[in-house]
Design goal:
Layout (H helix, E strand, L loop, with lengths): L3 H12 L3 H8 L3 H15 L4 E4 L2 E4 L1 H31 L5 E6 L2 H8 L4 H6 L3 E6 L14 E4 L9 E8 L1 E6 L15 E3 L7 H10 L6 E3 L2 H9 L5 E4 H4 L5 E3 L9 E7 L7 H16 L1 H4 L1 H10 L1
Parallel strand pairs: 3-4, 3-5, 8-9
Antiparallel strand pairs: 1-2, 5-12, 6-12, 7-10, 7-11
C-alpha cells in the first residue's frame, strides 16, 4: 500500500458491515470505495475481499493484512494527536479549532446556549459542537473533548466526573388529572433501539407492559410529545423543569439519573486550546450543578 488513503479505504471497508457504511465513514460515494479497493487489489496482486450478495467479506489474505494495517493506523493517529497538541503550543495556545462531542440534547439545549462566554474569552478558537447519538472516537480525532452520560470503559482516556444529570417524569399541565390513575396513564418513550437506556427501562417498568402512546429515537421529540399532552415522559430536569407547559409528577425517577463525564485523549490534554475547553466545561457543569441534578429543578417545578 503506497499511501495512507489506501490504508484508510481498506480499513473502513474491512471493519464496516457494507460498502455504503464504509462510504459514509469516509464521506465519499460508495462507488468511490469500490473503485479504490479494486485498484488496490490490482496493484497488490491480491484478492482482499469476496464480493457477496450481502456485502464485502475479507479473504484470508485480507484478514492478514488488516492486522498490519491497524498497527499503521494507530501510529498515524498517535502522530496526528501529538502534532495537534504541539500545534496549539506553537500557536501560543489559544488558537485553532476545538471540537466538543456531547449527547444531542445536552449539546443543543445546555452547552450551545452557554458558549458565548468562552468565545469572548478565546476569540482565536474556532468552536465546533457535535451532538451525535454515537459516541465520538477520541482516538481517531473525531472530537477533542467528549461529554458522555456514563462512566467510560476505555481506560486509555482521561476522564473526569462532571456531576449528575437528574431525570423526572413530566407531563403537560393539561394531563394533570389523568396521571393519578395508573390504568389511565399514557407514556411516551424511546423506540426499541434505545430500550437499554436507564430512564427508558424505568419508564417501561411503570408502563407495566402496556404499549407506549408514542415512541421516538431522540429526547427532543419526547420533550415535544410530552408538551402536547401525548403522555408522561422521562425528561432531564434542566430541559423540562423550566418549561411552563410541563409539570413534574411525583413519581420516583432517581434510578434514571445519569452521571456526566468529561473525556479527553492523553495526547491532547495539555494542548492549550483543549485545556481551555476542559476548564470551561468543568466550570460550566459545576455552576449549573443544581439545575442539572434533581433538587433545585424539582422544587422549581412543584412551585408552579
Amino acid at each position: 500500500m503506497r499511501d495512507w488513503d489506501d490504508i484508510r479505504y481498506f480499513l473502513e471497508l474491512g471493519r464496516s458491515p457494507s460498502l455504503s457504511a464504509a462510504a459514509r465513514r469516509l464521506k465519499v460515494d460508495h462507488t468511490t470505495v469500490a473503485r479504490r479497493i479494486a485498484t488496490l487489489e490490482r496493484r497488490l496482486g491480491l484478492k482482499l475481499f469476496d464480493r457477496l450478495a450481502r456485502g464485502y467479506a475479507l479473504t484470508e489474505e485480507g484478514l492478514r493484512l488488516l492486522t498490519a494495517a491497524e498497527r499503521v493506523e494507530q501510529e498515524a493517529l498517535a502522530l496526528g494527536r501529538q502534532a495537534g497538541g504541539a500545534a496549539g503550543d506553537a500557536a501560543g495556545g489559544l488558537a485553532g479549532s476545538l471540537r466538543i462531542a456531547a449527547p444531542p440534547v445536552v449539546a443543543a439545549a445546555f452547552i450551545a446556549p452557554r458558549l458565548l462566554g468562552f468565545r469572548q474569552r478565546h476569540p482565536g478558537i474556532s468552536l465546533e459542537l457535535a451532538g451525535g447519538k454515537e459516541a465520538a472516537d477520541l482516538g481517531r480525532r473525531e472530537a477533542d473533548l467528549a461529554v458522555r452520560l456514563s462512566k467510560p470503559a476505555d481506560g486509555r482516556l482521561v476522564a473526569r466526573r462532571l456531576g449528575t444529570l437528574g431525570f423526572g417524569f413530566y407531563a403537560a399541565r393539561s394531563y394533570r388529572a389523568a396521571w393519578r390513575s395508573s390504568a389511565a396513564r399514557d407514556y411516551v418513550g424511546y423506540d426499541d433501539s434505545l430500550e437499554a437506556v436507564p430512564q427508558q427501562r424505568l419508564l417501561l417498568k411503570l408502563a407495566g407492559g402496556r404499549p407506549l402512546a408514542f415512541a421516538a429515537n431522540d429526547l427532543a421529540s419526547l420533550h415535544q410529545a410530552a408538551r402536547t399532552g401525548l403522555g408522561i415522559a422521562a425528561l432531564p430536569h434542566f430541559l423540562a423543569a423550566q418549561d411552563p407547559l410541563l409539570r413534574l409528577l411525583p413519581l420516583d425517577a432517581a434510578a434514571a439519573d445519569r452521571e456526566i463525564w468529561l473525556l479527553v485523549h492523553p495526547d491532547l490534554r495539555r494542548a492549550p486550546r483543549v485545556r481551555a475547553g476542559m476548564d470551561f466545561l468543568i466550570a460550566l457543569f459545576e455552576n449549573e450543578r443544581a439545575l442539572l441534578a434533581a433538587g433545585t429543578a424539582r422544587k422549581a417545578a412543584r412551585r408552579r
